[in-house]
Amino acid sequence: MQSPRNSFAPGREVPAEAPPQRAASRWRIDGLHFEPKLEHEYRLHMRADQRTSTLVCLITALGIWLIFIGLDLTRLDGWAAMLAGDRDVPLAITLRLVTLGVLLIQISMLATQHLPSAYHRLSMLVLALIGATSTFIANMFKLRGLPQADIAQLVIIAAVFLPVGLTFLQSSAVALFVALFTAALGFVMLREPAHLTEHIRLSILLFFAVFVGGVGAWLRERAQRDQFLLRRMLHDHAMSDPLTGIANRRGFEDNVSSALQQARRDGVPIVFAILDVDHFKRYNDYYGHQAGDEALRLIAGTIATAGRRPMDLAGRLGGEEFGLLLYDVAPDKGLARLEKLVAAIEELRIEHAASPTADHITISIGATAFDGRELMPELYRRADAALYASKALGRNRVEFSATTKVEALSMETRRRA
To answer: Which keywords has UniProt assigned to this entry (predicted)?
Structure first.
């Protein structure tokens, strides 16, 4: 039998190149970077995963910082120096206190799990302030002939590369800043040849430490990204339907539950629909299961296209039954979109000679609107009742459950069946 120009004939392969290409692009690591959406997920995951280690590091840094503030006041005779008009000592104390304040803000965010989008910038600022302040005070000690620990800068460089919620590039930028600032400030503050010779050696060591720390951080982040990617792929495979590529029942229901919670907070409308391919058992019996699988893949792609907005959801509930959630859509607009979907399935012109409804595959849809309070089981029950009503009223149509009349019709249909 000759198929129309835009028809799908049983046995004809459904184009499947695009989805795998998109999947390959989504799961590829370019250097140390995913595609934008996955990269955002990775950074949120890393920030949450490293929250405890970051908190431990910052509390440790806070304790050390408080000890050094006390030592500075004692060793520099801070109060007397300030009274005598020494401007370096007040500046050093101010830098210590500013860094202390930023440390406390960062610790408070981690303790309360309130992590804004600019959180990584605050982490970078804390580390940069610690490095800059320590450099300034160490040079002050040298100028006054007091004992100082140049190795502290090496420790700070190492600390920058600890798991504190920063990426390799962010950590490298901070470490390089600390090394450059230390080198530049030493040449500005230190004038004696002995100090300069010692400072040059220290600067070389700092840049070497940046290089070694950077290599280690790159290798660690690469391994972290590989592990994240593997877990994410396993999760996606567990939540997706292997035949159609859209969400399976478990993945769809999990996402719907999250969407309902979000809708309650945002106060936005939702349209929830259940879709069923009409007379699909007859299709499988007539054309075979392979043709049935090809038809389902094509239908699933059309349904997924109908849920094209970011918060819309589409999933295969099982067999020839699909679910669709339209987020932030009023009932009248949702009904119009579902009616277009019914027409779009018809336009596929998938031949169905065994159907008493039409000579091609059609779908029936039962839909309902979220009332802002109910849970998914109640929403599903009303959409399912509307689906039975849609079938009872002739199929190849949308029935919207706005009243209990639809549910009564559904119950009567089931009773007769």
So the answer is: Membrane, Nucleotidyltransferase, Transferase, Transmembrane, Transmembrane helix
Kindly report, as residue ranges, where domains of CATH 3.30.70.270 are found in the chain. 18-24+241-416
Instruction: Please report, for residues 250, 272, 279, the alpha-carbon distance to residue 297 in angstroms, rounded to integers and kept in the order given.
Output: 19, 21, 17
- Kindly report, residue by residue over 200-252, the tens digit of the pLDDT: 999 999 999 999 999 999 999 989 888 888 888 887 788 889 899 899 999 99
Phi first, then psi: give them for residue 275, nearest 5 degrees: -120, 140
d(CA 19, CA 353): 30
Please, which residues have CB within 8 angstroms of residue 252's CB and are 6 or more apart in sequence? Answer: 313, 314, 315, 316, 317, 323
What is the DSSP code (8-state) at residue 241?
-
For helices 119-143 and 88-112, angle between their N-to-C axes, nearest 10 degrees? 150
Which residue stretches of 161-192 are H helix?
Answer: 168-189
Q: Which fold has domain 18-24+241-416?
A: Alpha-Beta Plaits (3.30.70)
| Helix residue ranges per DSSP H, 113-167 | 119-143, 151-160
Whether the full predicted model's pTM is greater than 0.85, yes or no, is: no
